[in-house]
Structure formats: C-alpha cells, structure tokens
Amino acid sequence: MDIRTRLISTAERLFDRYGFTATGMDRLTQAAGISSRTLYKHVGSKNGLMAAVLGERDRRFHRLMTVDSVDALFASLETWIDQEGARGCLFLRAWGETGGDVPEIAEAMARHKQRLQERIDEIVVAEIGRRDDELAEALLLLFEGATHAAAYSGSAAIAGARRAARRLITDARA
Amino acid sequence: MDIRTRLISTAERLFDRYGFTATGMDRLTQAAGISSRTLYKHVGSKNGLMAAVLGERDRRFHRLMTVDSVDALFASLETWIDQEGARGCLFLRAWGETGGDVPEIAEAMARHKQRLQERIDEIVVAEIGRRDDELAEALLLLFEGATHAAAYSGSAAIAGARRAARRLITDARA
DNA sequence: GCATGGGTAAAATGATCGTTTTACATTGAG
DNA sequence: CTCAATGTAAAACGATCATTTTACCCATGC
C-alpha cells in the first residue's frame, strides 16, 4: 500500500478512536510504520495531516452517499456506521477540537457540510420531482441527528430517522 | 462569587471554546484567578473538572428545557444557543475527546442523553395525550440534529427542526 | 493568642507535545 | 557509475502537559 494512503487511513482511525489532540505524532508514526521525517515531508504538520484525513474521508463518505432515495441514503448511513463506528461527525469534532481556529480544518468542515446539503437537495428532487428547501432541511437535520444519536443509541437512531424522513416525504408529496 | 462556581463556569467556557484537551490547566487557573493547588483540592484532576463541568451544564440545560410543548422546547434551544454558542453537544465532544475511556465522563454523557430522552417523552404526552415512542424518537433526532447543524447553519437549523417537529406532531394527532 | 482551614505564589516533577535535525541506507534513472 | 529522491533511525529542540510540593499568608473560632 502507498505510504501516504497508509499514513492517512491510520491517522483517520486513531483520530476517530482517541480524538485529534489526544493522539500524538509518536503514536501516529509508530502505528503507520513510518518515520516522523517522512510524515512531515508528506503532510507538513499535524494540522495538515488532520486536513488531509478530512479530505479523504469526505471523498469516501460522499462516494457512499451518492444515491437517489431517502431509504438508500439512510441505508448508506447505516453501512457507514457499521464500518466506521459512531462517535459523532469527525468533521465537527475536528472543528471543535481546534476551536474553529485552523482555516484548513474549518474549510474542510464547511465543504463537507455543503456537499451533504447539496446531495440531499438532489435526493429531494428525485423523490418528489421538485425542489423543496424546507423538506431538504428537515432531512439534513434527521441525518445529522442520526449521526450523533447513533453514538449513544446505536443503529436504532438511523432506523428512527429513516421512518421520520419517509413520513415527511409522504406529506410533501400530497 | 463562590470559588468553585467560578472555576467550573470558567472551565466550561474555555472547554467549549477551545476544546477539552487543548485547554491546559495553566490557562484554566489563570482565567479563573485561582492557584493550581486550590483547583486540585476542589476537583481532584482534569477529568474530575471535566465531569464537574458536565454535571453543572446538565443541570442548567435541563432547567431550561423543562417545558411542555415542542414549540417551547425549540424556543428554549434557541435561547440556549444564543447564550452559549453552537459548537455541537459538549457532552458528545467530551466523550469523543476522551475516546469514551473515562468512566465519569462517559456516565455524564449517558445520563444527560437519557434525561433528554425522558423530557421529550413527557412533551409528547403533553402534546398528543399519549405515549408515542416513534414520535419521541423523531423529535429527539431533530433536536440533536438542530444542535449540531446550528454549528454551521446557525439558528436557521433550529427553526427548521421546529417546523418539521410540528408537522410530525400534527400527523401523529390525526 | 494561637491553631486550623483555605487560600496564595512559584518551583519542581517527569512525561509528552509537535517539529527539526543529523547521519545513514536503499533504489531507480541517466 | 553516480546522482537525486525517498526512505529510515534516533536524538535534540524548546514548549507545554497534568500534577505535586514547598513555603507562606490570613482569617475565623475556640
């Protein structure tokens, strides 16, 4: 496996499991099996590594969320959480741990959320044949809620969000 | 003001603004205007301080959320966020930053979320005159979603959640 | 009038932080 | 053959981490 890929996926796992600030560079280099010199050649700094991790995660996340129905959307979320675990949105966590003060990280968060919003807009059009900003907003909130409630309620949160979403879609169709 | 109260409210502000791990004890003692010796006499350790902060926040939060309608619930959430800012749920953030490995913190998070669930159960009964677990779950998800989406969408997220909640209540009454 | 409890300031603890540096090994291309 | 790139290991950097210790101040109550 490519060294940069290994570094970033290792970092993603450790950041998610232990938190960003609590995960030191020594632990990172040791887990990835690379020297600290190589790490800094590749990502420049810890903030650079965090931003790179978020960038990769965003691509992987949106590849999985490219669907055209709410049922499929929440099914994908369930798959995601089965694979990744549920510790809350990693973008919000990175943003919060850095106090919103690191531009690269704040931008990665904003970009990720904007893309999510756009994806849901598209799903709404596919579902009811027209734009409906109010419905899209509600679905985003249910998605966000499920992501975080899954941390303490498990996958029941996702099933609940899916049911509520379907109900709102049905209402909007009428 | 009582020294312990000042310590805990200062810590809450700094933890929320800069993150738990990123906030050092020096910064804390300096901001609270107390010596480190006194801090440790009062809360024992940094984890103890974090748990104490969450305990106080839980009391304050639930005092504000003691209402009997969804409209009032989301109005209270808006008040809360106006006062406290929107950086995501501080309980989930503390839990995430510590990897879920600190019992006192994991328990504070679980307790807080369980109480929120119970409060929403009560509101559902007040609204439609009977228990409805599915509706209550949906409202919790909207609440959780609004809490986190407010970090990047501001108070529009709360207004949106309130509208969706009202719609679900109307449906459930029929 | 003096002990005691609760506070202060400041230094010391040893560990760990993110980052840079020094010195060396391997390897593929011109 | 050799140069340049890319990697390693390991030490050093100064800063900061959470926590403890030492030494002192000052009030309140017996």
Please, could you describe this protein's structure?
Two copies of one chain form a homodimer. The first copy, chain A, is an all-alpha fold and 174 residues long. The first copy, chain A, has one domain (3-173): Tetracycline Repressor, domain 2, CATH 1.10.357.10. Chain A is 80% helix and 0% strand. Chain A has nine helices and no strands. Chain A has helices spanning 3-18, 25-32, 36-43, 46-64, 70-84, 90-97, 103-128, 133-153, 156-173. In chain A, helix 1 crosses helix 2, helix 1 packs across helix 4 (46-64) and helix 5 (70-84) runs parallel beside helix 8 (133-153). Chain A binds chain B through residues 17-19, 21-22, 87-89, 92-93, 95-100, 109-110, 113, 134, 137-138, 140-149, 151-152, 156-157, 160-161, 163-164, 167-168, 171, and chain B through 17-19, 21-22, 87-89, 92-93, 95-100, 109-110, 113, 134, 137-138, 140-149, 151-152, 156-157, 160-161, 163-164, 167-168, 171. The first copy, chain A, binds a DNA duplex (30 and 30 nucleotides) through helix 3.
